[in-house]
Amino acid sequence: MTRSGKRTTIVDIARQAEVSISTVSRVLNGRPVADEVLATRVRKAATELGYRPNMVARDFRRGVTSTIGVVVPDLANPFFPHVLKGLAEEVSAGDHRLLVVDSGEDADQELQLVAQLAGSCDGIILCSPRMPQSSLATLPALGVPIVCTNRSVGDLPFGTVGIDSASGMRQAVAHLAQLGHQQIGYLGGPGTSWSDGLRREGLSTAAADLGVSVSSTEAGSTSDDGHAKLPELLDQGVTAVIAFNDLVAIGALARLRELEMDVPSRLSVVGFDDIPVAAFLGPPLTTVSLPKEELGRRAWAGLHQQLETGQVPQEELLPASLVVRHSTAAPAD
């Protein structure tokens, strides 16, 4: 640091060492110089002045940024901070840093953010992207390695890591059927959500296999959505409800309290994600637990492989598991 309190530059070092700026640049970047005495003076001056290199500028000169862009559809959803935590743990162990942006569940905004990040990031991770397949197909032209989580990309040259939501849904339906429920409702997620498609697939398969009837409605991904849409399923006589995620389930539970309908004696409720608060609700929520932090770790492993080798990793699917708590029981007689 200079006496004025400003950040030390190579100009300051050159002045103190009484050498040219080009000599300082060569020494600090590890390139050979003809006179080792000059090199020693440069290093001594840099130390005395407390010089710290500008890593961004250095990376730019090398043609890399050491920055990984991450696009998230909704940072307010507790699912995604856990994914980011697992991702950050792995990335921070190396030389990269994360730049996280929120698309606000807007597919068009998501596409624009990816295009902006492509010019300043070494690679991009798309968390549960909402954009249609036609938009995804335009991304290879950006020339940056990409990994998607919770989204199938077909034959596009992206790494993909997902969670087997269909299996999780089958487990939830089997649990409810075993309790004796024959009329099950589903508070579905956003229409642009690939995970919601998997859950509906698992719901349909399980219902057919187990001989139960299913009613569904498109709710969304927030507690407000669950609160607003639950009456549509109650009107259809369901005795149990599965929600797209735990936030939607929380909204449904709030609506049931308003209606003075006890859970689980009047209606069983199942969530998805197993966010931390799920275990402390009244009653504690039965939910499908998803390996959120591991999803982040595996996303970085796939992107790191592309950065190091140029090879796109094979699609990976992580398991989901049902956690039974106290929001589900046999239907009332």
UniProtKB/TrEMBL annotation:
What residue ranges carry the coiled-coil annotation?
none
* GO MF term (any one): DNA-binding transcription factor activity
The alphabetical list of record keywords is: DNA-binding, Transcription, Transcription regulation
**Domain of life, per lineage:** Bacteria
Q: Which SUPFAM superfamilies match?
A: lambda repressor-like DNA-binding domains, Periplasmic binding protein-like I
What SMART domains does the annotation carry?
A: HTH_LACI
What residue stretches are annotated with the HTH lacI-type domain? 8-62
Q: What is this protein called?
A: LacI family transcriptional regulator
Q: Native species of this protein?
A: Kribbella capetownensis
The taxonomy runs: Bacteria, Bacillati, Actinomycetota, Actinomycetes, Propionibacteriales
